[in-house]
Design goal:
Blueprint: E1 4-7, E2 11-12, E3 18-24, E4 32-38, E5 45-51, E6 56-59, E7 67-72, E8 77-82, E9 91-98, E10 104-105, E11 111-114, E12 118-122
Parallel strand pairs: 2-12
Antiparallel strand pairs: 1-3, 3-8, 4-5, 4-9, 5-6, 5-10, 7-8, 9-11, 9-12
C-alpha cells in the first residue's frame, strides 16, 4: 500500500504562485501520478498528470501554461507548480497514483491511492 501526503496549500491573492508537493511512501516509478482538485459542489477533476516511466505530462485546458508538474523518482515526490493563480483555482487539491494518466472530470475509483488533500484558496 502506498501512502500519499500533499503539502503546500495556502491562501494567496490572484496572480500569485504556489508549489504543491506530493510525497509517496513507496516507489512511484512505473506509475502515473496525477493532481486533482475538487471545489465545493463540483466534481473532482484531474488538472495534471505525469507518467513516471517517461515523464510524459498532461494538463487540463484551463491550467495549460500556468501549471507545471514534475516528478522525482529518487525522492518519490511529484510537485505541481501553480503560477498566475485565479479564484477559480480554489479547491482542495489531491494527488493520486493511477494506472494511466487522465485529466478532466473523474470518479474517485480511477485512482489506486489518494492523498488526504491540501486546501488552495485564491482570493483578494
Amino acid at each position: 500500500q502506498v501512502q500519499l501526503v500533499e503539502s503546500g496549500g495556502d491562501w494567496v491573492q490572484p496572480g500569485e504562485s504556489l508549489r504543491l508537493s506530493c510525497a509517496a511512501s513507496g516507489s512511484i516509478l512505473g506509475h502515473a501520478v496525477g493532481w486533482f482538485r475538487q471545489a465545493p459542489g463540483k466534481e473532482r477533476e484531474g488538472v495534471s498528470c505525469i507518467r513516471m516511466s517517461d515523464h510524459g505530462t498532461y494538463y487540463e485546458y484551463s491550467v495549460m501554461g500556468r501549471f507545471t508538474i514534475s516528478g522525482d523518482e529518487a525522492k518519490n515526490t511529484v510537485d505541481l507548480q501553480m503560477n498566475d493563480l485565479k479564484p477559480e483555482d480554489s479547491a482542495v487539491y489531491y494527488c493520486a497514483t493511477l494506472k494511466w494518466c487522465t485529466v478532466g472530470p473523474v470518479s474517485t475509483s480511477i485512482a489506486d491511492y489518494w492523498g488526504q488533500g491540501t486546501q488552495v484558496t485564491v482570493s483578494s
